[in-house]
Amino acid sequence: MFADAHRRLDRALASVCERLATPALVIDLQAVRHNIAAVAARAPGRWRPHIKTVKQARILEELFAANVCTSKCATLPELELLVATAARTGHRPDIVFAYPLYKQAFRGLAGFLGDPQVDLQVLADAPKHLAALDHWTAALIDAGELPREFCLRVALDVDLGMHRTGTPPCGWHTGLRALELRHTQIVGLHGYDGHLHWEDRFEAHQGYDALCELARALPQNLRGSALELCTSGTHSYVHALSHKGLNEGPWTHSISPGTVVLSDRRSHRAATDLGLRQAAFVASRVISTDGHARLTLDAGSKGIAPDCPPPTCTILGWPNLRPGGPSEEHLPVTVGSQPAPGFGELVWLVPEHVCTTVNLYRHAVVIDGERYVGLSEIAAAGHPVWSNPSTA
Ligand SMILES: Cc1ncc(COP(=O)(O)O)c(C=O)c1O
User: Fold this and answer.
1) Measured from the CB, is residue 258 less than 6 Å from ligand 1?
2) Residue 267 CA: which ligand 1 atom is closest?
3) In principle, which of 29, 99, 167, 299 could form an S-S bond with 303, CB 3.0–4.6 Å?
4) Average pLDDT of 331-343?
């Protein structure tokens, strides 16, 4: 999959290599475009990418240019970036804020909720949270921050076995019975099954069966006229696309992989299925060597895949090098046989997990095939101090 990739990267960055400080995140736009086209072709009109993977306007522009205007986000900076990029490029974004909102965070979204150029859904974590969202919406309407006729669009977060957020289908069935909503409509079900893998088709389909059953049983007075069932990331989308109920119900269905835009080591099954190209790399240099069995790179846990056990990456073009356990700034590597790169030499790494790698950088070095084209700000990296953008 990575044959000769290091030589192409060497050529693409030849003009800037001498001044490149490492570790550096490098993104290949040509590969990004290829990956976006591959996923869009596999799930036409059904892809709602999670943009926590990319967190930068330059790649959002590529998604919009490919007419992928549906998305998911999890943080306020991601939402701000989506809305600003859509406005600048003349697109209307359709966004699911896929993270449970507490009261202060919800109030911080008022400006986006009331924006007629933005379609925004929020998640309800549990029946009580749904009632609270309705109540907080009423308060924003009373305060004049949302128009009188405003109706909050909510997707129910359904716990399909991941046990991270949401409520299991049975909890929604009973919890919705007694509920009355004044300013809120259920417009979707969100069943993210991130605990499942490529082999877990049976478990995945059991979860989707339960999701479809819940969709059929939703009380008419609580739901909107159209319903979207949104499931699955990079490791299980293939099961959702083959599920009869999701495909044929009186609803629309979307999948929400985000990693596929850039690809990484741990998404190799999806990469093979979709024919993805690796679009994100970390440039790293040798900063220590014993001259024979060990060398150390400058991409420790603050440079690449901080959430992964070793090996956190593959070293392109050097099959005889085995990355070991990183410390913050150091990545010791075992040299299996000679030759090995010398002190100061540049090597190219493919991250085990690309989403957490991107989030470590303020800028990415952008190439387009074999051409250096500039920098891209990772504007949505990290977390803001204030929950309301207007108080920033
Ligand atoms: C709620 C939600 N949706 C979608 C995704 C995207 O999945 P992936 O990173 O596997 O592409 C994630 C990933 O963490 C997620 O938490």
Assistant:
1) yes
2) 10
3) 299
4) 96
Residue 136's alpha-carbon distances to 55, 151, 184, 386, in angstroms, are 29, 12, 10, 18
Determine the distance separating the centroid of ligand 1 and the alpha carbon of 75, expressed in angstroms: 13
> Is any ligand 1 atom within 6 A of the Cβ of residue 48?
no
Dist. CA 31–CA 43, nearest whole Å: 18
Q: What is the pTM assigned to this prediction? A: 0.96
- Ligand 1 atom having least distance to the Cα of 164: 16
pLDDT tens sequence across 5-26: 899 999 999 999 999 999 999 9
CB of 237 closer than 6 angstroms to any ligand 1 atom = no
Location of each CATH 3.20.20.10 domain in the chain: 99-255
- Asked if residue 72 has its Cβ within 6 Å of ligand 1, the reply is yes
* Fold of the domain spanning 99-255: TIM Barrel (3.20.20)
pLDDT for res 1: 57
Query: 52-86 pLDDT, tens per residue?
Result: 999 999 999 999 999 999 999 999 999 999 999 99
Domain(s) of CATH 2.40.37.20: residues in the chain = 5-26+275-377
Architecture of domain 5-26+275-377: Beta Barrel (2.40)
Q: Is the CB of 73 under 6 A from ligand 1?
A: no
